[in-house]
Input
Amino acid sequence: DADVTQTPRNRITKTGKRIMLECSQTKGHDRMYWYRQDPGLGLRLIYYSFDVKDINKGEISDGYSVSRQAQAKFSLSLESAIPNQTALYFCATSDWNRGEAGELFFGEGSRLTVL
Amino acid sequence: KQEVTQIPAALSVPEGENLVLNCSFTDSAIYNLQWFRQDPGKGLTSLLLIQSSQREQTSGRLNASLDKSSGRSTLYIAASQPGDSATYLCAVRNTGNQFYFGTGTSLTVIP
Output
């Protein structure tokens, strides 16, 4: 099983619908992130969380919300999806171990299409 | 704000050639730099992580170097193979614990 699991892997929806993307991890990391990837724009940070009670906006948080249900689970919601939210979404985790910044690990991605 | 640039955006080489991918960043106050591989429509796979105190890391045919003072990193791939064809991204982790990504170099290794 993958260390970072995203569901659904693919989703097609209509404008105005509410969508939730879920992420769970088995790495025991405190830090979790949501990114979106668009051709030519690279990866952009939507939200990040350093623990269950710590949630922070990234550079493109408008139109998105998140929930950190547990250390291992971090969900991304689109309350009212719009076509320009069509993208590949990634969840990632990392840790901070003995003063050394750890690696970033990614899920397989969730491809969202908003019609 | 940290800016990460990868040049070239695309590279095509014949099989067996050694090659170098480049990554530059504007703010040298980083904790680490990480190289990833991404196959089309897939997630990012971590290749190498270099801490700010290190100069290089090696894994198999891959060698990554870091020159923090000049804001540069290179990923050296030896004896390239068609299976190396993918997009390679670098990411820096700054002292604010955020990650900044380049837009990647798309590598094609021609058999």
Chain B touches chain A at residues 31-32, 34, 36, 41-46, 49, 51, 89, 91, 93, 97-99, 101-104 (CB under 8 Å).
